[in-house]
Amino acid sequence: MSAEAMALLEGLQLCKTHGFPHVEIEIDSLTLLKVVRREMKCPWRIWGVVCHIRHLLEDFTSVLHHCYRELNAVADSLAKLASTSRASSSYCATSFPRDIRGLLQLDRVSYPYIRRQWKP
């Protein structure tokens, strides 16, 4: 959830920097969505990030809603990449990592992403 919260914060900061007054946010972490909306207690580890998110949301006309991870595979993969590399990166369409470029291409042609569960 920490990676998801940081990704949301950085996305909001980018929107503010570029002057977007209206944002529609799709979050695949229902827990984070409930925390941001104050429907659930905030874990202390991400308290500062969530407070910053809430403050930034006041600057926008925004819509926040939940979407399933399968519909948000690119964003989910980028959040996982950021959490494992512990670095903030920006990408353009040609510089995404190979596996994420593949997910982008599937998304572009509306090909469904099916999450598989591995069973031993």
Low-confidence stretches: none
CATH architecture: 2-Layer Sandwich
Sheet with the most strands: spatial strand order: 1-2
Helix percent reads 40-55%
Classified by CATH, the class is Alpha Beta
Q: What would the average pLDDT be, to the nearest integer?
A: 84
CATH topology: Nucleotidyltransferase, domain 5
Organism: Coffea arabica (Arabian coffee)
Protein name: RNase H type-1 domain-containing protein
Domain RNase H type-1: 2-82
InterPro entries: RNase_H-like, RNase_H-like_dom_plant, RNaseH-like_sf, RNaseH_domain, RNaseH_sf
List the helices and strands and how they pair.
Layout: H1 2-17, E1 22-27, H2 30-36, H3 47-57, E2 61-66, H4 73-85, H5 98-108
Parallel strand pairs: 1-2
Helix pairs in contact: 1-3, 1-4, 4-5
Can you give a write-up of this model?
This protein has 120 residues and is mainly alpha-helical. It has one domain: Ribonuclease H-like superfamily/Ribonuclease H (Nucleotidyltransferase, domain 5, 2-Layer Sandwich), CATH 3.30.420.10. It is 48% helix and 10% strand. The protein has helices at residues 2-17, 30-36, 47-57, 73-85, 98-108; strands spanning 22-27, 61-66. Strands 1-2 form a two-stranded parallel sheet. Helix 1 (2-17) runs parallel beside helix 3 (47-57). The chain starts with a helix and ends in a 12-residue tail after the last helix. InterPro entries: RNase_H-like, RNase_H-like_dom_plant, RNaseH-like_sf, RNaseH_domain, RNaseH_sf. This is RNase H type-1 domain-containing protein. Residues 2-82 form the RNase H type-1 domain. It holds the Pfam family RVT_3.
